[in-house]
């Protein structure tokens, strides 16, 4: 497995890409990921932040193991602010390829589409950190010629997340299962 960690630096954040090994370890103890990456957890540490993280980290570890060269699109990027882990963001896998998945999906996906998701610790909301991270990750993903479109979903009442997506260049494209759908073209004309 890959032992190399990658990083993206923004004006205020360092986005760290955990390796598959890091994610396998974090799947057993999610609150230990910060120390594995040389970061600290904020004080006080909100234990609700870790809800479902073990399953997410296990799935990301398996995805990264299956696609070792896809670290940009397959890992759970950790957002560090002055050495403190404040959240995470990432894509849900390699670009969609209808030739590979036509038997499993009946529509709604576009070749080259990747979906982004994110979570921020509640004490760090309202400062633009996630907008900064999402914009940086989208810019990095758009360097991959296979990526044609970046999508996201938000709950209907989640105005902060919707505003974040608008600031990051997304437009609302529809509605599914009580969620708004959003998209950003990789190469807007």
Assign an overall shape: globular
Beta-strand percent range:
25-35%
Look at the helices and sheets and give the structural class.
alpha+beta
Task: Compute the CA-based radius of gyration.
Answer: 16 Å
Query: Could you report the average pLDDT, rounded to the nearest whole number?
Result: 88
Biggest β-sheet: count, sense, barrel?
8 strands, mixed
As residue ranges, the low-confidence spans are none
- Please bin the fraction of helical residues: 25-40%
**For the largest beta sheet, what order do the strands appear in spatially?**
1-2-3-4-5-6-8-7
Ends apart, CA distance between termini: 39 Å
Number of helices: 7
What are the key terms here?
7 helices; alpha+beta; 8-stranded mixed β-sheet; globular; 8 strands; 189 residues
Structure in words:
The protein has 189 residues and is of the alpha+beta class. It is 30% helix and 26% strand. It is built from 7 helices and 8 strands. The protein has helices at residues 20-28, 33-36, 53-66, 71-74, 98-101, 129-141, 159-167, and strands at residues 6-9, 14-17, 77-81, 84-91, 113-120, 149-155, 171-176, 179-185. The chain has an 8-stranded mixed beta sheet with strand order 1-2-3-4-5-6-8-7. Helix 1 (20-28) runs antiparallel to helix 3. The model has no long low-confidence stretch (mean pLDDT 88).
Brief digest:
Helices cover 30% and strands 26% of the residues. The protein is built from seven helices and eight strands, in the order ββααααββαβαβαββ.
Give the arrangement of secondary structure elements.
Elements: E1 6-9, E2 14-17, H1 20-28, H2 33-36, H3 53-66, H4 71-74, E3 77-81, E4 84-91, H5 98-101, E5 113-120, H6 129-141, E6 149-155, H7 159-167, E7 171-176, E8 179-185
Parallel strand pairs: 5-6
Antiparallel strand pairs: 1-2, 2-3, 3-4, 4-5, 6-8, 7-8
